[in-house]
């Protein structure tokens, strides 16, 4: 029997944030929707969603981008989980990660939020931190630059050239996590590139 997953891409709404490091999770949702020729539509959970499958006849997933700002992503996450009858272990959160070098992807289930306010709010709203995460590395800011400024800046020129490949790899990681499980996906994506 097919299972339903929610794949939640964290970010901030509005065109001024679209190309920023903090919105890489939403870029991954866009990539997954494009692969399936799906358009995101407004949902009453204060998010834009598209329903699809990893592969026809396989598990169903709901691609979702909250309409809220990053720090209050939990409301839409919990509302979508309730609407679709999905438990937290089937809510995959895709987000930027300062503590991982740029162009690196790491997957895990549970753990702390590492200072990421979007992840913190999702954990609070779901009532547990035990949900799968696809963490897309954006690296630490250079010099004494504040982390908050770094995540809200657009990707630099060198990063932009590698970004399509990074986003595609993160989308692959989501699909593999659903199809093959956490360990198999980790083995593929945690190996040195």
Please render the helix and strand layout as text.
Layout: E1 4-9, H1 24-35, E2 41-43, E3 47-53, E4 60-66, H2 74-84, E5 91-97, E6 105-109, H3 117-126, E7 132-137, H4 147-152, H5 157-180, H6 182-189
Parallel strand pairs: 1-4, 1-5, 5-7
Antiparallel strand pairs: 2-3, 3-4, 6-7
Describe the structure.
- The chain is α/β, with parallel strands linked by helices.
- 37% of the residues lie in helices and 21% in strands.
- Strands 2-3-4-1-5-7-6 form a 7-stranded mixed β-sheet, sandwiched between helices.
- A hairpin with a 6-residue loop joins strand 3 and strand 4 (60-66).
- Helix 1 (24-35) packs across helix 5 and helix 5 packs antiparallel against helix 6 (182-189).
- The longest helix has 24 residues, at 157-180.
- It is globular and about 50 Å long.
Short précis:
The protein has 193 residues and is α/β, with parallel strands linked by helices. The protein has six helices and seven strands; from the N terminus they run βαβββαββαβααα. Strands 2-3-4-1-5-7-6 form a seven-stranded mixed beta sheet, sandwiched between helices.
């Amino acid at each position: 029997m097919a299972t339903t997953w929610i794949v939640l891409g964290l970010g901030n709404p509005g065109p001024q944030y679209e190309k920023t490091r903090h919105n890489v999770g939403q870029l991954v949702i866009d990539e997954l929707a494009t692969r399936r020729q799906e358009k995101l539509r407004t949902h009453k959970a204060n998010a834009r969603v598209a329903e699809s499958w990893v592969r026809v006849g396989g598990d169903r997933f709901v691609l979702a981008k909250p309409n809220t700002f990053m720090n209050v992503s939990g409301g839409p996450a919990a509302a979508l989980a309730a609407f679709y009858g999905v438990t937290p272990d089937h809510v995959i959160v895709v987000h930027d990660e300062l503590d991982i070098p740029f162009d690196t992807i790491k997957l895990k289930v549970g753990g702390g939020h590492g200072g990421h306010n979007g992840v913190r709010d999702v954990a609070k709203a779901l009532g547990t931190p035990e949900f799968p995460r696809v963490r897309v590395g954006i690296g630490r800011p250079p010099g004494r630059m504040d982390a908050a400024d770094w995540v809200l800046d657009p990707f630099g020129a060198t990063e932009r050239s590698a970004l399509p490949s990074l986003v595609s790899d993160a989308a692959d990681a989501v699909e593999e996590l659903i199809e093959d499980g956490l360990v198999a996906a980790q083995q593929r994506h945690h190996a040195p590139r």
